[in-house]
């Protein structure tokens, strides 16, 4: 009877703690543990996508079905991370029309995107600024400062001018402390948000030493973390190296960032890499571009694992079909190269945790097509590759979940066994 009592106790514990579930609920905050992202105590490997347009499109309530459709199709293909913009500075449909002045309708568009992601179990990476002038970016910030009498020499003064930095800090605070009008949850308390990104592809070409961006990241990472201790933070880097490993970069790509130094800054939780050999080596053969990509991906995985000792996410990659002669087969080879490296690393407990292709579009979004866009409902060999990668990473997560559940079962059994022996000893002594 005592033996069966132990079995019943363990089974009850399993049922109550959900140990038999293959993967635990997706509603917690994503954290880091060594080389891994972790969700509810289980290593989190995930396939994902970029959809910069979510807030922009959702600003118009009549177009919000596109967000819902995109998320639904994404989950059907096993995708569970989306990266998007939490900025739009000046111009059309701005989030921030002038320094500190925010458009409530646009903010509600971002509220909707977050609430829909939550419904579909998709984690979000929200980028807070653009290096480029699309949607405002650094250029808009320095123009605002000029209009207030600041002496601005170039867009690179974004990183050093005190007034501009105040603008940016205010944007961080405004977004992080925003209360979602649909869920009632402040962004900084919303577990659907996986991470913040300081800037999309920061560059500072006027200072190739890297000191300017290094100081800016250090300052802004500390400020953001002082407001929000729940979420992960990454820089938004493309992955270019500093002078110590410049030979790894594409030729002429010394842009003031350093993959190693920038990601070693306190407060930066995981590294990111972007991969566009079709742009960076546009004059090279397709074979040379694939060879470069293979080395680029593997070098960054090894450096994240051995030097940074942090997880690495391939946050942008793809190949445009816009140029003459570019084929779906070539795009598939790019996806295969990135996906294979990620899977090989993840399967062995390495630093690579996932990849986000550029970019996901919903049906009826032809005006957003930049040559890289993929509509999941349109069957193609690339869509098949995406689904296959999702399933491979999900299997790794399930394996870790099972191993964790076995450890829970063993601990419960050992505790009960110790209690049983303790009780018998008391009975044997006649007490």
TrEMBL record:
Domain spans labelled Glycoside hydrolase family: 29-359
InterPro entries according to UniProt: GH (IPR017853), Glyco_hydro_5 (IPR001547), MAN-like (IPR045053)
SUPFAM superfamilies: (Trans)glycosidases
Listed Gene3D superfamilies: Glycosidases
Keywords of this entry: Glycosidase, Hydrolase, Signal
Pfam families reported in the protein's UniProt record: GH5_mannosidase
Domain of life: Eukaryota
Enzyme class (EC, first level): hydrolase
Reactions mediated catalytically: Random hydrolysis of (1->4)-beta-D-mannosidic linkages in mannans, galactomannans and glucomannans
E.C. no: 3.2.1.78
Signal peptide per UniProt: 1-25
Family under the similarity heading: Belongs to the glycosyl hydrolase 5 (cellulase A) family.
Protein name (database record): mannan endo-1,4-beta-mannosidase
Organism this protein belongs to: Prunus mume (Japanese apricot)
């Amino acid at each position: 009877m005592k033996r069966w009592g132990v079995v019943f106790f363990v089974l009850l514990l399993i049922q109550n703690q959900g140990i038999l579930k293959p993967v635990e609920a997706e509603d917690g905050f994503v954290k880091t543990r060594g080389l891994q992202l972790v969700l509810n105590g289980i290593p989190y490997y995930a396939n994902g996508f970029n959809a910069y347009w979510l807030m922009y499109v959702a600003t118009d309530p009549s177009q919000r079905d596109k967000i819902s459709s995109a998320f639904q199709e994404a989950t059907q293909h096993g995708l569970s991370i989306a990266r998007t913009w939490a900025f739009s500075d000046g111009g059309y449909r701005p989030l921030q029309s002038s320094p500190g002045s925010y458009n409530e309708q646009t903010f509600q568009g971002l509220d909707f995107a977050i609430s829909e992601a939550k419904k579909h179990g998709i984690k979000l990476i929200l980028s807070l600024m653009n290096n480029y002038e699309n949607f405002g970016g650094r250029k808009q910030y320095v123009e605002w400062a000029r209009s207030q009498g600041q002496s601005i020499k170039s867009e690179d003064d974004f990183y050093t001018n005190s007034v501009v930095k105040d603008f940016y800090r205010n944007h961080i605070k405004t977004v992080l402390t925003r209360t979602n009008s649909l869920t009632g949850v402040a962004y900084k308390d919303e577990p659907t948000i996986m991470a913040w990104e300081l800037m999309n592809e920061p560059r500072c070409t006027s200072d190739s030493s890297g000191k300017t961006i290094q100081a800016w990241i250090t300052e802004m990472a500390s400020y953001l973390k002082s407001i929000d201790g729940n979420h992960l933070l990454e820089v938004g880097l493309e992955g270019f190296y500093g002078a110590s490993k410049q030979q790894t970069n594409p030729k002429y790509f010394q842009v003031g960032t350093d993959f190693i130094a920038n990601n070693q800054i306190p407060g930066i939780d995981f590294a990111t890499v972007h991969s566009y050999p079709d742009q960076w080596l546009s004059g090279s053969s397709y074979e040379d571009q694939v060879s470069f990509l293979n080395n680029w991906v593997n070098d960054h995985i090894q450096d994240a694992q051995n030097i940074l000792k942090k997880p690495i996410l391939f946050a942008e990659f793809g190949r445009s079909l816009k140029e003459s002669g570019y084929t779906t087969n070539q795009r598939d080879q790019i996806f295969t190269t990135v996906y294979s490296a990620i899977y090989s690393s993840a399967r062995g407990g390495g630093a690579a945790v996932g990849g986000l292709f550029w970019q996901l579009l919903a049906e009826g979004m032809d005006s957003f097509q930049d040559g890289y866009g993929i509509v999941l409902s349109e069957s193609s060999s690339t869509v098949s590759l995406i689904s296959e990668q999702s399933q491979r990473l999900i299997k790794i997560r399930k394996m870790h979940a099972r191993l964790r559940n076995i450890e829970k079962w063993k601990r419960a059994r050992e505790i009960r066994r110790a209690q049983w022996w303790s009780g018998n000893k008391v009975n044997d002594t006649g007490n």
